[in-house]
Amino acid sequence: MHSTPENNIAYHCTQKICQEGNAQKNAFVFLDSQMQSTFFSFQQLEEESNRFANVLQQLGFQEEEPFFLFLPKTPETFFCFLGALKAKLLVSPLFYSFGEDALLDRLSDSGATGIVTRKSYLKKLKRILPKLPRLKKILVIDILDHLSENQLSLPLLREGVPSSFEIPPTSREDPSVLHYTSGSTGKPKGVVHVHGSLALQKRTTQQVLGLESDDVYWCTADQGWVTGTSYGIIGPWSLGVTQVHYAGGYDPEKWMLLLSEQKVTVWYTAPTALRMLMQQPDAFFASFSFPHLKRIYSVGEPLNPEIISWGRRVFGMDIYDTWFQTETGSIMISNHPGLIVKPGSMGKPVDSIEASVHDEKGNPCAPNEKGRLVLKPGWGSMFVNYRNHTDVYREKFVHGWYQTGDTAWIDEEGYFWFGGRSDDVINSAGHLISPFEIESALLEIPQIVESGVVGVPDPMLFEKVVAFIRLKPDVEMDKELELKIRLYLSNKLSSIATPGEIRVVDRIPKNKSGKIMRRVLKASYLGQDIGDISTMEEEE
Amino acid sequence: MNPFEKLQAIFQEVFDDPELEISPETTANDVDGWDSLSHVNLILAVETRFHITFSQKELMTFQNVGDLLAAIETKIQPGS
To answer: Are A179 and A190 in contact (CB under 8 A)?
Structure first.
């Protein structure tokens, strides 16, 4: 196992770019929520991440210790991510809207020893601290004095710390990034990636996104998700590309201004955002000009044909759909320039990726026959484990193929078409949501006796969360209770876990072993045939 | 409790932050976690606690807390 600092992802994103003579080039322009811009060069990215790496070493963090980022999009998000990689910690960025239960699941499962956050997020962490005995340090980016021995001011820690850092020898097999992902059963699982993932992330950034050194690139993904790290940090910066990072939320006018004024050339976003933009009249877009914009890409959910038509009309170009997962680490199937876009299709496998669609016995499906989307293991950015769940990791490989959990079909020309999930995981606005987590949280509300959660088709979000609940006999549903349920889920889990609809039912269908029959709930919601219910538990 | 104080309490509950302080100029960008999904919760909370309802058209006009408060005050006026 060859170890050298040159294998470290962060080396490629900062130091190498500076050594190549691009130290003064803009690594990113940071736009705050009011669109005020601050520019950061690769030299600053290198030095600030070095300082953070030094802070981590001085605090005694050891290689491969799980270290979390719980931050909104700020410059520190990037400095800390890269600094922690340089110090060879296992870095796990968290979605900014996670509630205390979602945080506890991830910090507890990983055995997190450190986290960097901001003052206003501390309250959530403080509530769960007693359950996290291994969490030894909390670094806070926006306080000027230490709060206690373990709750420390990052600005204070950074004072006088050298801006150079010697990256320890790193092998391609050393753990790098940890992203938690939701399944249909059990708690979220920590997907472990390694430093060797860089090569394919860099290559797909070149080959699929087509980024070149003079591009200005905007990836709208939050750094809490794999797109935000693979293509919002690692891929573009390893190529020395200038990025735009915007701290504000969705706002059609600001987004179009950003594209126009920042002279964005390549834009990577999500179908839900595009569908929201589609609600604007065409005249709205005519008031902006995008002479620099060359390509638009999308990820997270299937890109419906209407969006492709709209993109051609409004921006005068195709929008390229890309498909990948937290586990794959980089784009596996994609549309891209040079490949004729079939609206609605995911495109074709990229690079050397071998993808197929199999039936339940593991045999390849005939053209246009829907089956399980599978990948031949061994691609460069493949995850190496689910942290603490090697058994689940092994189960993902059947007959020598990685089971993605998605269904698809391949047409006669080799284009892949997304068919949905093969499990109960909900894809809402590009976020994978575990019904199990929501069902469990619902049962913590005293008025609720039983719960079942499904995703149903939604024209804006792709799928929306629908919660079915059975209430205690003396409880009636009213606006106050609905509010209580919504706020509980939003604050304990995340705003993305908040149901779009809550339905009160007399019973939750379960099979004879007590498992919730979500397909029955979904079919009844959609007014479809509920199918075989011979295994359903008899009504009491 | 006047409408502003009541609205502040609602914000603290919705965004799970007992120390959150709002002003008429506060926008979604100033409050951690105020995204499109939690905005639905905020409006539901305002409607429930003030016993009012907003039309879709009204919802589109709120640019900041001041706009929301003005709409609330109009609706809770006796006789309105």
So the answer is: yes
